Structures are given as structure tokens and as C-alpha cells.
Amino acid sequence: MESQESQDVPDGPAVHRAFICASFNQDTTSLSVGTKTGYRLFSVTAVDKLDCIHEGECPDVYIVERLFSSSLVVVVSLSMPRRMNVYHFKKGTEICNYSYSNNILSVRLNRQRLVVCLEESIYIHNIKDMKLLKTLLNTPTNPTGLCALSVNHSNSYLAYPGSATIGEITVYDANNLSTLTLIQAHDSPLAALTFNASGSKLASASEKGTVIRVFSVPEGQRLFEFRRGMKRYVSISSLSFSADAQFLCASSNTETVHIFKLEQHSPSQDEESPTWSAYVGKMFTAASTYLPAQVSDMMHQDRAFATVRLNMFGLKNICALATIQKLPRLLVASSDGFLYIYNVDPQDGGECVLVQKHRLFDSSEEQVEEKEEENQEDVSPQPASQSYAATVALPSTPPSSTTLMGYSEDGGAQKGEVIPEHEFAEGPVCLDDENEFPPVGNQSN
């Protein structure tokens, strides 16, 4: 499962900036959180308890991604925003690191590929040996690093903006390294993208945030269209399918999280319920064949099946749908430092009920952060993003004494000396046992 996280620290009091970034892993069994002092990995397989399974020290982590339930974790820090570090956290060792020509804006993983997104380029690595396979240069300006990678590694579909001015989606086959299709999804630039678990559906939202659309992959045919609201534009921060792709949740900078149900309405259902609303619905359906396409589309848009009312407004958050202890749940990780767990009624929908609220940080940590804010009037800003063209000509940063750097043949990425010892192994990747990917060789100076 993928969720689009923000690298910006939300505005507001220090207590409302408990973490810099958050992301769920691909099957929504783990939550990764980046903070000013490091990162934490939590298990979210139970409702009543939230276990912290690992803590790593690293200043100002703004990207942290875990690969399923393995020990592979990718970390990027504001102190070195052009460098990606890949760790085996159970062994406490670094697998490898890559440096890029510009700031890293997002990272996506599945069992075959690791994708690194910069503002004007995308790097595709083979996750078995971290070899750089392909660099997509001069992609449309993408200041938020928006992209999505299908969890199903057998297809490894990658979606990213095909335009900086309209909502065009490029769907790329990251296994065969070729473009599949272009989808004209929205009139406005894209704000959120996500695949379902099988990679057969792709959901998108634009910067306006009023309409969410679902397309078939790889054909690009529009399957569903949901209206989140008409009264105001919002900034959608995350989209996420349920594991069975029957539901889609969307969170934004408002206090409401929407859950949409992906179901086709058959004519027989209307005939079985001869109500006034069904009659009016039939009339609208018939009339839509004589109306302009825009008006007709409006009539076929479905509103939310279920909703959640958060007790906050304007804070960054990410949402995910998961089955925990055999029941459907909605998870919301908010930048106020809490994970909220809601029950979802898959039959009747409606308002979801909050069943648990977990603090992701101790109150003492928030107090320390608040004191730091009081003592530091000038906070160092995040390094300003530069275009690829402006940075590719710059001299590379001199390597440390313990790392031998060398340019790859494709795209100018620089790889550290640490290489997985199984780089030339032929066997399949194993993720979930004691011999899980990736084994780590000894470092040498």
C-alpha cells in the first residue's frame, strides 16, 4: 500500500509538529515516521497496542520507507537531501547509499524495484542488488515528487505526472522499462496518485481536490468518478485502496476523511426498489444522453460511502484502509503525533467510529522540541530545490574517506562502496524470514 506523504513540516505550534513525515508500508502492517532526531517503525497489526519495532538515529528525517515486513528501510535526511541511505535495521548495518544531482523528493518500493523521484528526473533501481537500471530525465516539473509504484511486483507499474500544467498521468512499466500509456485524468495538475494492490486500478486527484477518479491499468479507461466536495478546493494529501480494491479512502487538509465504495450500479437494483429517488435517478440517466458530456459526468459521480470527522483542521495526515484483527479499519496518522484507528462498516458505511488513539511520541519529546523552538528563532530552512539542469553541471560533493564514489553510466547517480554480497545471486528475493533480503557484506575503507 502506498500513501503520498508530505516532506514539509506542518505549520503551527511545536506540539503539532511531532513528526516530519509518515508512511505506511505496502501491505499496511507497519507505519514509518521521520522526526527531527531520527525515525521510528511501528507495527500496526493490533488495535489496542502500537509496538515500536525499531528506532534509528538520524537528524531531520523527511523520507522513511520500509519494504513490506522486511528489515530493508530507506532513509533520507534534510541534512543530506541528495543522498539515499538503505539500511538493514535488524542488523544495524548500511546496505548501500546513492547520491543524486538534486534533492530527493520521494522514494517508492516493491519487491522488484526501488524508485527515487527528483523534481525533474526519476531513477529506477533493481532492488535485488540496488543497481541503477534506468533514469527518466527531463520529466515534467514535479516539485512534490508525486509518484506511485504498484505493490504487485510482477508488473511494477509506475505512475507520475505527465505534465506540469494539466492532470496527465504517465504510466510506466518499471520491469520492462517502457512507457505503457498516458491518461488524461484532470484539467488541473495532479496532487495524489495510488495503485490498488494488484496494480489493475489507479486512483488520482488534482490540486483542486474536488474530484477523485479511478482508471483501469494499463488501458487507462475511466472506471469510477467520486466527488469529494464542491464548495471549496482542498489539498488531498493521500489516497489509498483497501486490499480488495472495494474501497478507496482520501484525506486532505480538512477535518474530513472520505471513504468511497467502488461498485457498479446495475439496472436490476433500481427495478427492485421502485422508490421516488430511483424514479428520479432513471430520469436523470435518460436525460444525460442528451446533455453535454460535462453535465452528464456530474450526474454519474458518487459521493462518499463513509466518512471520518477528525478533531483537527489544516494538519498534514495520511490515511490507509487495513484489515486488523479480521475487521476493516481506517488508519489516520496525523502530524499532531497520533495514530487514529476507526471501525469501518463495509455494509452501511456512514460515520466511522474511533476505537483507538495511539501517541507516536512521548510527551517529554514534544516538550524538548518546544524548548528548542523557543531557543531557536531562526530555523534552518530545507535546502531549496534546484532544477536538474542547474545542478547536473555542478561539481560532485567530495566523497567521505570511508566511501568510494563513482558515477554510474546512466543519469549521474553516485553509488557508495557498500554493495550487497548477493549482487549476482540468481535466487528469488526472500523477505519474511531470518534469512530475509538483503544480506549485507562487510564494509571496507
Structural class: mainly beta
Helix content: under 10%
The major sheet is characterized as: 6 strands, antiparallel
SS strand fraction: 35-45%
By DSSP, the count of extended strands is 31
- Cα separation of the termini: 38 Å
Based on Cα principal axes, name the global outline: globular
Radius of gyration, rounded? Answer: 22 Å
Strand neighbour order, sheet with most strands = 5-6-7-8-31-30
Average pLDDT, all residues:
78
Low-confidence stretches: 2-16, 267-285, 293-300, 366-409, 417-435, 438-445
Number of helices: 5
What key attributes describe this structure?
disordered C terminus, 6-stranded antiparallel beta sheet, 445 residues, mainly beta, 5-stranded mixed beta sheet, 40% strand
Give a structural overview:
This protein is mainly beta and 445 residues long. The strands form 7 sheets. It has a 6-stranded antiparallel sheet with strand order 5-6-7-8-31-30, with no helix packed on it. It has a 5-stranded mixed sheet with strand order 21-22-23-24-28, with no helix packed on it. A 4-stranded antiparallel sheet has the order 1-2-3-4, with no helix packed on it. Mean pLDDT is 78; it is low at 2-16, 267-285, 293-300, 366-409, 417-435 and 438-445. The chain has helices spanning 267-272, 276-288, 293-299, 363-375, 388-391, and strands at residues 21-24, 30-34, 38-43, 51-57, 61-66, 72-77, 80-88, 93-99, 106-109, 113-117, 121-126, 131-137, 148-149, 157-161, 167-173, 178-186, 190-195, 201-206, 211-216, 222-227, 236-241, 247-252, 256-261, 306-309, 317-324, 327-334, 338-343, 350-351, 353-359, 406-407, 414-415.
